């Protein structure tokens, strides 16, 4: 069974990765998002949509040498907002490093980094620019394009993908319906890169 999960906020990835790691051990992670989601707490809560990957690190659910976060940007409460991630060994690719370029070369490097071990894909729709996906709770300007999103997901073809999710879609915030349409297409693309799927 390979879970392909629709969220809901990013909190859902935490229990999913608990289950995935129980079967496969610590997994690599391709994480597309505007935010690192490695906060320690929010409004006093340790488990929320801004903390799942810190909880995963603490529980040993991730192979931290094989974690890549792409599209990270936005305001922060700290002068060095990516320090925690980099201290764990994550590769952080800020959105500005993606502007005006193809991400095919990046994904070539990511495939090499991930190797043949199990990998999980977690895609927060706010990784994309709100011009394309306004239907989300925490939009951040200057994000990725839909074409870059496809390059990232298609770039995972051939990896040992053991699960995926697409989170933070809030259709009520987008009267056009474009965010839901984009989310559905990204999920279809994830389905197409699962091991053994013929396209």
Condensed summary:
This is Agmatinase, mitochondrial. This protein has 199 residues and is of the alpha/beta class.
For the termini, the CA-CA separation is: 19 Å
Radius of gyration: 15 Å
Strand percent estimate: 15-25%
User: Are there runs of 5+ residues with pLDDT below 50, and where?
Assistant: none
Q: What pattern of helices and strands is seen along the backbone?
A: EHEHEHEHEHEH
Number of strands: 6
Q: Bin the helical content.
A: 25-40%
> Sheet with the most strands?
6 strands, parallel
Count of helix runs? 6
SSE-based structural type? alpha/beta
* Average pLDDT reading: 97
Placed side by side, the strands forming the largest sheet appear as 1-6-5-2-3-4
Backbone shape: globular
Keywords: Hydrolase, Metal-binding
Family: Belongs to the arginase family. Agmatinase subfamily.
Protein name: Agmatinase, mitochondrial
Organism: Pelecanus crispus (Dalmatian pelican)
Structural write-up:
The longest helix has 15 residues, at 178-192. This protein has a domain at 10-78. Strands 1-6-5-2-3-4 form a six-stranded parallel β-sheet, sandwiched between helices. It is globular and about 40 Å long. The model has no long low-confidence stretch (mean pLDDT 97). The protein has 199 residues and is α/β, with parallel strands linked by helices. The chain contains six helices and six strands. β5 (118-124), α5 (146-154) and β6 form a beta-alpha-beta unit. Helices cover 30% and strands 20% of the residues. It starts with a strand and ends in a 7-residue tail after the last helix. It has helices at residues 13-24, 52-58, 83-88, 104-114, 146-154, 178-192, and strands spanning 4-6, 27-32, 62-72, 91-94, 118-124, 160-167.
């Amino acid at each position: 069974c390979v879970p392909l999960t629709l969220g809901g906020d990013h909190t859902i990835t935490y229990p999913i990765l608990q289950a995935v790691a129980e079967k496969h051990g610590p997994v690599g992670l391709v994480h597309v998002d505007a935010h690192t989601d490695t906060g320690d707490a929010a409004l006093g809560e340790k488990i929320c949509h801004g903390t799942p990957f810190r909880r995963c690190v603490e529980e040993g659910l991730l192979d931290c040498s094989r974690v890549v976060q792409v599209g990270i940007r936005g305001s922060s409460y700290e002068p060095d907002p990516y320090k925690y991630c980099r201290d764990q060994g994550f590769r952080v690719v800020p959105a500005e490093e993606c502007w005006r370029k193809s991400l095919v070369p990046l994904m070539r490097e990511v495939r090499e980094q991930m190797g043949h071990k199990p990998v999980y894909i977690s895609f927060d729709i706010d990784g994309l620019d709100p011009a394309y996906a306004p239907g989300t709770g925490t939009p951040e300007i200057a994000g990725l394009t839909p074409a870059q999103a496809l390059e990232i997901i298609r770039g995972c073809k051939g990896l040992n993908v053991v699960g995926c999710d697409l989170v933070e879609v809030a259709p009520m915030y987008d009267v056009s319906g474009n965010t839901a349409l984009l989310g559905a297409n990204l999920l279809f693309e994830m389905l197409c890169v699962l091991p053994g799927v013929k396209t």
